[in-house]
Here is the input.
Amino acid sequence: MMLKNIKLYIVLFITLGFIACSSDNEVEPLFDGDIDSRVNERLQSYTNTLVSSEFGWKADYRPQDDSGVYNFYLKFNADNTVEIVSDFNNGTDDLPTTYRIGKSQFPELVFENFSTFHRLFELEGFRLGAEFEFLFEEVTSDMVTFKSKTDAGDNKSTLTLVKATAADKEAVENLQGLDTRIEDGHMTTLPFRGITVANTAAEIVFSGSLAYDDLERVATVISEGDDSSEVVTEIPIEVTEGGLNFVEPVTLAGTAFQEFTYDVTNNNFTSVVDGNTAVIAHASLPLYINNDIFGIGTSPSGSRFLYRPSLGANPLTSAGFDAIVAQINTDLAAFGLVFEQFIFTTDPSATGINTTLTIGFTRPSDGGFFTGIYDFEGSIVDKKLVLTYQGPNPTEGNPGNSGFFEASSLNMINFFGNPDGLIYTDRGPFRSDTSAFSNEAASLLSAQDPSLSVYAVWF
Here is the structure.
């Protein structure tokens, strides 16, 4: 009993000792102010930096590390509004918006209302990886850098602000609409594009095909390597008032090129370095036939290649091909029928009949739909798809209809079956003057008659 009392007294003594220590020696605060106050001071400092620039900020925006540059002018105001001027879509989406500087885990800048940043974010099923919420990376009086708040991995959107001069807002305004000059098919019906380099003796020392993704602002150059392999070079682009720049210099045939000047008369871009001349220009045939043909029919979007005029126009469908469709409609007008679409499937690796062209027709008076189905044997020859026509399919669909439509469809059938073959080119996500899909698109061009080409979508 006495032992239990001794233990009780010891515990009581120790407890009282802790209480006494706690009362007499309060923990000193680690900082002069509380954490929230210090964070708020930092956020206010960031706000003051953005607002204090008399002429606003010139901004380079890259939706991904490997994408091209979108040019912006931003003027932050003390009432949390921001003026936006950009070189995207002719400035259509440069709407007045508000901004917020706050914190979640880290200090952040958020463009709150719909603007160009939001438009880029949502385009083509969010393909671009754009952003409208940014984390502060580095802040000085003359430069502020941001990275995406939400992008996963290392390939994040970046926004770099440099203190603007009195002329910078107008400089960005002058860029509006100039991005269309870089687009494939601008002011031409020629379906291909290439880049060549000529040396000081005017000898061509480099040539390659070139395709431009106007959303990512990336040019893809495909050329032949020293060992006859295919060399693919992706080049981020920036629009300039004089033409375009490669974001970083690119070496072609031993010469580094970066700045290109647009020639409105010839509708091309030229760069001259030490007497060597690089030219980006459109062409009737590819300067280098790439290896796209070896993946025909295996698109992740599907194995059926659909052309339907109601999906909208694209310059890669030539006037000559439009004339083929018009001729079909003329021939079938007496029957109240019009061309609706074609669906093309092919597997050149298979033997025998391995390719089918299904042409669809509608009767607007009652909504009737009819098809003609035509068979080919196909193979790949010199990177071209060569198809040999076998006639109407004898079993699928309605063979009688296939026979009936054959004469009216012969020019389209001959486009596919031309003896010189078809040049197949992947074209990225489907784009037209009325539609944009994430489904992959491609073009087919007649090697026999390059004035005939069609742009269609895989599904």
